[in-house]
């Protein structure tokens, strides 16, 4: 059985996913970053952690065969297919304060933090003040001097990544809202999610 969802540009969506289900995230137009976050359905304080994922994989990069972990060091997802092989675990969700800091336009600007929080609140009335997502398709270069450079994503139209849920999760994703930099190639577009059971 398959369930299909479209996450419109600059918006968020929450989806209940059971252990063993596959989650396919498809970049419909190319160069669109997806802020990917989740909580444990049974204990919402257990959530996806980019920092723990870096720690467990001993790497700043993950791709096919690697796993994503929770703040309690439990395996949450395993990547089983990856067309792009370039994603980001370093950046937090964009938020109004970030837009104000970098671009002086934070007031009323759509953001992944708000979109993910609002999608979770709708069902659980639970607000996450800080989210460390898996930034799918985001291309971050680490320079020799230690600085980081956000480059246009390498994903093309139709490229995808597929993950398998290792526990029952409440997925919360956002089609990233940044059009002011290279993050989404300068334009925000929708993405598609397919959740399937074999």
Characterize the structure shown.
The mean pLDDT is 92. The chain has helices at residues 50-57, 96-103, 112-124; strands at 2-7, 12-17, 22-27, 34-40, 67-69, 75-82, 134-136, 139-142, 148-151, 160-165, 169-175, 191-196. Strands 1-12-3-10-6-5 form a 6-stranded antiparallel sheet. A 4-stranded antiparallel sheet has the order 2-11-4-7, with helices on one face. A two-stranded antiparallel sheet has the order 8-9. It is of the alpha+beta class and 198 residues long. It has one domain.
What's the structural blueprint in terms of helices and strands?
Blueprint: E1 2-7, E2 12-17, E3 22-27, E4 34-40, H1 50-57, E5 67-69, E6 75-82, H2 96-103, H3 112-124, E7 134-136, E8 139-142, E9 148-151, E10 160-165, E11 169-175, E12 191-196
Antiparallel strand pairs: 1-12, 2-11, 3-10, 3-12, 4-7, 4-11, 5-6, 6-10, 8-9
Taken from the alpha-carbon principal axes, the silhouette is: globular
* Number of β-strand runs: 12
Radius of gyration: 15 Å
Count of domains: 1
The portion of residues forming beta strands comes to: 25-35%
Order of helices and strands: EEEEHEEHHEEEEEE
Give the % helix.
10-25%
Mean model confidence by pLDDT: 92
Characterize the biggest β-sheet. Answer: 6 strands, antiparallel
Distance between the termini: 7 Å
Number of helices: 3
Structural class determined from secondary elements: alpha+beta
Order of strands, widest sheet: 1-12-3-10-6-5
């Amino acid at each position: 059985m398959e369930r299909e969802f479209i996450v419109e540009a600059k918006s968020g969506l929450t989806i209940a996913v059971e252990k063993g289900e596959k989650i396919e995230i498809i970049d419909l137009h190319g160069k669109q970053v997806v802020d990917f976050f989740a909580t444990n359905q049974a204990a919402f304080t257990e959530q996806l952690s980019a920092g723990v994922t870096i720690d467990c994989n001993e790497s700043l990069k993950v791709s096919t065969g690697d796993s994503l972990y929770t703040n309690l060091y439990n395996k949450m997802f395993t990547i089983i297919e990856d067309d792009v092989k370039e994603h980001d675990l370093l950046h937090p969700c964009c938020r109004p304060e970030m837009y104000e800091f970098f671009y002086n336009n934070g007031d009323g600007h759509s953001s992944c933090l708000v979109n993910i929080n609002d999608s979770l609140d709708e069902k659980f009335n639970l607000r996450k003040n800080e989210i460390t997502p898996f930034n799918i398709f985001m291309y971050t270069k680490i320079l020799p001097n230690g600085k980081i450079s956000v480059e246009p994503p390498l994903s093309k139209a139709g490229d995808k990544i597929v993950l398998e849920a290792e526990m029952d999760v409440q997925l919360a994703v956002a089609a990233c809202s940044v059009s002011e930099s290279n993050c989404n190639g300068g334009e925000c577009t929708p993405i598609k999610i397919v959740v399937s059971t074999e």
